[in-house]
Specification:
The strands form 2 sheets. This protein has a 7-stranded mixed sheet with strand order 9-8-7-12-10-11-13, sandwiched between helices. 43% of the residues lie in helices and 14% in strands. About 1% of the residues have low confidence. Helix 9 runs antiparallel to helix 11 and helix 9 packs across helix 18. The chain folds into 2 domains: 309 residues, Rossmann fold (3-Layer(aba) Sandwich), CATH 3.40.50.10440; 187 residues, Alpha Horseshoe (Serine Threonine Protein Phosphatase 5, Tetratricopeptide repeat). It starts with 10 loop residues before the first helix and ends with a helix. The chain contains 18 helices and 13 strands. Strand 1 and strand 2 form a beta hairpin. By secondary structure, it is α/β, with parallel strands linked by helices.
């Protein structure tokens, strides 16, 4: 798999340098590359308790991305998914620890425990006060003697960091970290494995499946489950967390494991709020990439019982820009649509012929959804079929409230319906088409003349003309041939649509941004939709 790296051997050191460069001098790294990879604050006051965490790289922004006021003092970075060395951890401790002491926050993996633990012993031999806490928030493997530390670690970083920033002593900071660890629970789910730089991608998750309870280093989950969308995925995650849930309200941390889109993460957040524990979640951190697993297409959910002290600490200011902050989880606020946008609904009326015609047009466009999407993927963003089908479904659902017996009002009502339900430029253009057709009908034009007026208007507004490789290449000849009947219009539309496959330069739409090689041999999906519509109406 292609990645924007130079070499797996220099990946982590170059990434750290990039992070430090972009910090306006707030961060620095210790000398000692490549074996010592430690990011530290440059503004650190040694009179306060230092917080040091770290582990293998590949979890960015953890851990170096959380170095800054209100969170970590130093982050010790290993190679990808590999614990840092004892010397590296010791260097981090010595670099930031003063008389107030240091707290090490360690995820529960053997390498991290051993290396951080031995470094702590060596630091104590230098006379430093060092405490260490082990985060074990993962509930995926209930029979595991030592649970893994995953995204719940961020709760510890933030709560301990807020107390340390306020000047609390080492015993107070350590006790708060231990209480947070005792309450934090997490579990994750992914649709795909991660891509370790320099290694082939493991393809263990079957098609149509998701992996539940997988680790943040690409470890296999407890089971592969049927994937049936975001709602079912969140329900399974909640079901595994519920037995470990404390009483009262909780703080949620919605973590992107690296490859999920912001759209997906927002949908998952909505499903958390709608779930049967949603009323017990009062605050949320994220959704955001916090403790990732390279490019893993998944998420994890962490929960922490909320008391006044933990909510205050989680909501306290923190400088690291990777920390998204604490927000209340509230019901969506809904405000009324302004009067100028809310259309005046025409009086509904029935006309069996017009109803049947519109219903048939909608059926044709819905049936063509997949084919038109596939065609659009050749020269656009692959959504023409879905855009047209979505509008068709909405229009079919609106039939009972349309003025079917009044052509003038019917054109206008269809235009309004499309402007509200059909996205993209095509929705706007078709809304203009039917609005102009309604105006022409009101001025006495025949139904064919009204449609021709609509075509003239969208060419005027949109700027496209026949030959520009758009839906107009099929619509214009179809309307010109319509006086000879539907079969003639269908033939003209088909010839126009087929001709777009020979047009290697588009002058409108997304295809205008593509070169000849991407367009040759592929019909314009809008023109193809028009051709199919006329053909099946004629048939």
């Amino acid at each position: 798999m292609k990645q924007f790296i130079n070499s797996k051997d220099t990946l982590v050191t170059e990434a750290i340098d990039g992070l430090v460069r972009a910090s306006s001098g707030r961060l620095a790294r210790l000398d000692g590359y490549p074996h010592v990879k430690v990011v530290v604050r440059t503004d650190w006051d040694r009179s306060k308790v230092a917080l040091v965490s770290g582990g293998g790289s590949g979890h960015e922004p953890s851990h170096a991305g959380f170095v800054g006021p209100g969170m970590l003092t130093a982050a010790v970075c290993g190679d990808v998914f590999a614990s840092p060395s004892v010397d590296a951890v010791l260097a981090g401790i010595l670099a930031v620890t003063g008389k107030a002491g240091c707290l090490l926050i360690v995820k529960n993996y053997t390498g991290d425990r051993l290396n951080f633990g031995l470094a702590a012993e060596r630091a104590r031999a230098f006379g430093l006060k060092v405490s260490m806490v082990i985060v074990d928030d993962d509930v995926a493997l209930p029979d595991l003697p030592q649970a893994r530390g995953v995204a719940g670690t961020l709760f510890v970083h933030k709560i301990a960091g807020a107390l340390a920033e306020d000047g609390a002593d080492l015993e107070t900071v350590t006790a708060a970290a231990e209480r947070t660890i005792a309450g934090a629970i997490s579990i994750g789910m992914s649709l795909d494995t991660c891509t370790v730089p320099g290694s082939p991608k493991e393809d263990r998750i079957e098609a149509g499946k998701a992996e539940l309870g997988l680790g943040i280093h690409g470890e296999a989950g407890i089971e592969q489950v049927e994937f049936a969308g975001a709602r079912a995925a969140m329900a399974m995650v909640v079901d595994r967390l519920r037995p470990h849930l404390g009483t009262g309200r909780h703080v949620a941390l919605m973590n992107n494991l690296g490859g999920a889109t912001p759209l997906e993460m927002s949908v998952l957040t909505e499903e958390l709020a709608r779930s049967d524990i949603g009323d017990r979640v009062g605050w949320i951190v994220g959704p955001a990439p916090l403790m990732t697993s390279l490019d893993m297409h998944g998420f994890s959910l962490s929960l922490l019982p909320a008391d006044d002290a933990s909510v205050a600490a989680l909501g306290a200011p923190a400088a690291p820009k990777a920390w998204p902050g604490l927000e209340e989880l509230v019901a969506p606020a809904v405000q009324p649509i302004p009067d100028g946008v809310t259309p005046i609904q025409p009086m509904a009326s029935d006309h069996p012929g017009n109803r049947a015609l519109i219903a048939r047009c909608c059926e044709i466009l819905v049936a063509a959804e997949a084919d038109l999407n596939a065609l659009d993927a050749k020269s656009g963003d692959g959504d023409t079929g879905s855009t047209l089908a979505g509008a068709a479904r909405a229009l079919a659902g609106a039939l009972d409230r349309l003025p079917l017996a009044d052509p003038t009002q019917l054109y206008r009502a269809i235009g309004v319906e499309l402007s509200q339900t059909m996205g993209g430029s095509s929705g706007v253009l078709l809304a203009i088409f039917f609005a102009a057709a309604g105006d022409a009908s009101a001025n006495g034009r025949t139904w064919i003349g009204a449609l021709e007026a609509g075509l003239e208007r969208i060419m005027q507004v949109g700027g496209a003309r026949p030959g520009d490789r758009t839906m107009i290449d099929a619509l214009a000849p179809a309307l010109a041939s319509l006086p000879q009947g539907l079969p003639a219009a269908a033939q003209a539309a088909r010839e126009g649509a087929d001709a777009t496959a020979r047009m290697t330069r588009a002058k409108a739409g997304r295809a205008a941004y593509l070169g000849e090689g991407k367009l040759a041999g592929h019909k314009d999906p809008g023109a193809e939709a028009v051709a199919r519509l006329f053909e099946q109406l004629a048939g």
